[in-house]
Predict the structure of Threonine/homoserine/homoserine lactone efflux protein.
Amino acid sequence: MTGTALLGFAGLCLLLAIAPGPDTFLVLRYGLAGPRFGVLAAAGSAIGSLFWAAAVALGLADLLRSSPTAFLVVKVVGGLYLLYLGVVGFLRRDEVVDPGGGGPVRSRWGPSFRSGVLSCLLNPKVGLFFLAVVPQFLPAEAIAVGTIMVLGLVDAVVAFGWLAALVAGAARAVGWLRRPRVSRGLAGLSSVALCALGVGTIAAVI
């Protein structure tokens, strides 16, 4: 595989990463509790995309393309999970800031990382992206598990870089974000966005 092909694939991955989606809102939602939690959610999302790349490389994701039922199940479960995250985030929006000091609350890294992984794994569009796009960048003699995983790694790195940059940008405005009213408002907005994405995902397949 040529360097030009890799750069072209990375550019396409960046364009897709920039488009707001579930991972974007999820990362910003956790980033309100502190930059490290947003970065961990971004890392979880990147790991999830690697799992999809592996599934495509091993031929497992063909099931989603060939079986409408399997695609429907994954789609609905993913939509319900986004809706769950949105509802829980909205109900807990007052916990984003410390009422005593106005700073971020302490939180464990596990939930943010795990949510990032699950959000990506329950988004079949990631698998379909690899199925549809990756072959366009593979020469006939290079169609192998290792080569596909290289492209999967490129996608994961690009997506993580973009999401981490979003978190870093938000961290620069940390003083403004730590205001209780602002934090609660942004937490509520991101939660509503996740709910809307979840409902839209479910409605699209019903």
About this structure: The chain has one domain: 3-205.
